[in-house]
Design brief:
It is built from no helices and 8 strands. The protein starts with 23 loop residues before the first strand and ends with a strand. It has one domain: Porin, CATH 2.40.160. The chain is mainly beta.
Amino acid sequence: MVIIAHISCGQEATRDTNFWDDVHYGGNFGLGFNNGGFNISIAPSAIYPINDKFSVGTGLNFNYSKFEASKFLAYGGSLITLYNPIQLLQLSLELEQLRIARTLNLISDSRTSQYWLPSLYAGVGYRSRNVTFGIRYDLLYNDKKSIYPSALLPFVRLYF
């Protein structure tokens, strides 16, 4: 006597899904001002929802800052995770790697430097449909190398 048992788990194969149909495109935009300076940040990105609460993605980053007579240009990429414990709240963690080109204009001298700068942002935001307004904190903030005046930065994130 032969007994054959078959157990199957998973999704039904009747629905043809395309990975790219579920990808959301967008990103964030940042603008900061302080005494004698400003910063602009544009970061397009793409995220893929793992489930209703958790998404992962990647992004490109461009930053330009000018503080008094000094200028900073930065570009690079990031890995993004988003978690929505409830519909109106979004928690985020983002690992960013930027290439920095920095020019410091001093009274009698001008100094230029180029280096890589890692950042790890933990953020929280208010989410309404596809827009999130929030604030993020750089856990690896280095006031000697960062192009931002503070580790705490506001953001607006938009995905379609």
